[in-house]
Specification:
By secondary structure, this protein is α/β, with parallel strands linked by helices. Helices cover 36% and strands 15% of the residues. It has helices spanning 19-23, 48-58, 99-104, 120-129, 142-146, 150-156, 180-186, 207-230, 240-248, 253-258, 292-302, 311-314, 316-321, 323-334, 339-346, 359-363, 366-370, 415-422, 427-435, and strands at 39-42, 62-67, 81-83, 86-88, 97-98, 108-112, 133-136, 161-166, 235-239, 275-279, 284-288, 352-355, 374-379, 383-391. A hairpin with a 3-residue loop joins β13 and β14. α8 (207-230) packs across α9 (240-248).
Length: 439
């Protein structure tokens, strides 16, 4: 078994392994990004954890995704699928892969390992000995029960940074299973949407599953920075409920309630009026003009400059005291015009304005395309899925690249490269592990 120290930018001794020596050409980073040389052992599944390691891969880390030999990541069986025969709701070919896998696992190397097998503990330790980061999103307590928790990782490598995402935190409600919708409900988010008479409203994307990984990646990067100073790794523990509740708490809900302000205001926000969505002849626009100078421009573009002389419209406090009157004046203007006419009328003013677009329209915005903030869905053999785009890395660096050097791998495609090449297991041991269904 080959054991080498994980590379960190703080290492300046030329005798120490450099990134290319650490992982070899077959396990190169996805791109030459700012995290080049950082090796990640990815124990994640479904969405929140894979989203975190997706971001690390897109920033240049070498990500080794560990999957169950039989089923792989649970997302591998999420419809729809894409393959040589095109797009389908059910698998029609052995080469078909779920869009979830194609979207969440580019730039990641796939190995199989049955963590329930006794022999898996040693293999996990060997992987960790070559790594900088481990990420998992099991229910709380599961990683420890499987022998792949933080204590096991730290025993194999005291420099390891270990990131965990769970519903309520690593030490709370062990074994309790949660999903994004449950977290949206419990965090108060559902009662922040809609109007006062609406039922609780679920945000249309799995926002909790996307917010928690951002926090864990921030924590991992901070822990790597500290490790470079001290030589010691640590556990980074993110609660999905905590991440979402922290986001919800950015609004002053309790203060607003105490002041008698409505908390569910539908398409507009009265305390910052005009601020919200307004109907046009052929669609809707977002108009945001909470400052007096913005309102002057807005009323001027509307041909209603005389409203500024009315204290209910001319001052911010007056508008906040009479929000529905202000909104009614604006909507009387917008509803007789097309979206484009409203946009043209407000072009060059200090009013923030934009069309309400469909998801497809937004994903194909030329500015988003040019910056790589969405990208094509790419299959390893079938190529690009026509007309379908997915998440890109929405960060630009002046010196480094971001993105994904290769599409998502088939289940276990990198077993030989990782177990044979990186860990140094010989052919006999690999054959034994396969025969015992460990890998």
């Amino acid at each position: 078994m080959v054991r080498r120290l994980p590379y960190t930018p703080a290492m300046s001794d030329p005798a120490l392994p450099q990134p290319a020596e650490l992982v070899g050409d077959v396990l190169a980073s996805s791109v030459a990004g700012p995290l080049h040389g950082v090796v990640v052992v990815d124990l994640t599944r479904a969405l929140s954890g894979p989203r975190a390691t997706w971001l690390l891969a897109g920033l240049g880390a070498t990500v080794i995704k560990v999957e169950d030999p039989t089923t792989g990541d649970t997302a591998r069986v999420n419809p729809p699928y894409f393959g040589p025969g095109g797009l389908h709701l059910a698998r029609t070919d052995d080469e078909d892969m779920s869009l979830a896998t194609l979207n969440r696992s580019p730039g990641k190397h796939s190995v199989t390992l049955d963590l329930r097998k006794p022999a898996a503990a040693e293999i996990f330790a060997d992987l960790v000995a070559h790594a900088d980061v481990v990420v998992e999103n099991f229910t709380a307590g599961t990683a420890d029960r499987l022998g792949v928790g933080y204590e096991a990782a730290r025993a194999a490598n005291s420099r390891i940074v270990y990131g965990s995402i769970s519903g309520f935190g690593a030490e709370s409600d062990a074994g309790v299973r949660v999903m994004d919708t449950v977290i949206q409900a419990m965090s108060g988010l559902m009662m922040a949407n809609g109007g006062p008479d609406d039922p609780p409203i679920r945000v249309g994307i799995p926002i909790a599953d996307n917010v928690a990984p951002l926090f864990v990646v921030v924590g991992i990067l901070a822990a790597l920075h500290r490790r470079d100073r001290t030589g010691l790794g640590q556990h980074v523990d993110v609660s999905m409920l905590g991440a979402m509740t922290s986001l919800v708490a950015t609004e002053d809900w309790e203060a607003m309630a105490e002041l008698g302000q409505p908390l569910r205001t539908g398409p507009t926000l009265p305390r910052l009026v005009p601020f919200g969505i307004f109907a046009c002849r052929d669609g809707h626009v977002a108009i945001v003009a909470p400052q007096d100078r913005m309102v002057r421009d807005l009323f001027g573009a509307m041909g209603r400059a005389e409203l500024l002389a009315d204290p209910r419209f001319g001052t911010r406090d007056g508008r906040v005291a009479h929000p529905r009157m202000v909104e009614a004046e604006i909507e009387r203007w917008t509803e007789d015009r097309s979206v484009q006419e409203v946009l043209d009328a407000l072009a060059g003013t200090r009013v923030a304005v934009g069309p309400v677009r469909t998801q497809a329209e937004a994903l194909h915005d030329p500015r988003v395309l040019e910056r790589g903030e969405t990208r094509p869905v790419t299959h390893p053999t079938a190529g690009i899925a026509p007309g379908i785009r997915t998440s890109g890395i929405p960060i630009r660096f002046s010196l480094d690249e971001t993105g994904f050097g290769f599409p998502s791998r088939r289940l276990g495609e990198d077993n030989e490269a990782v177990y044979g090449g990186l860990l140094g297991y010989d052919a006999a041991r690999l054959a034994e592990l396969r025969a015992d269904a460990v890998i």
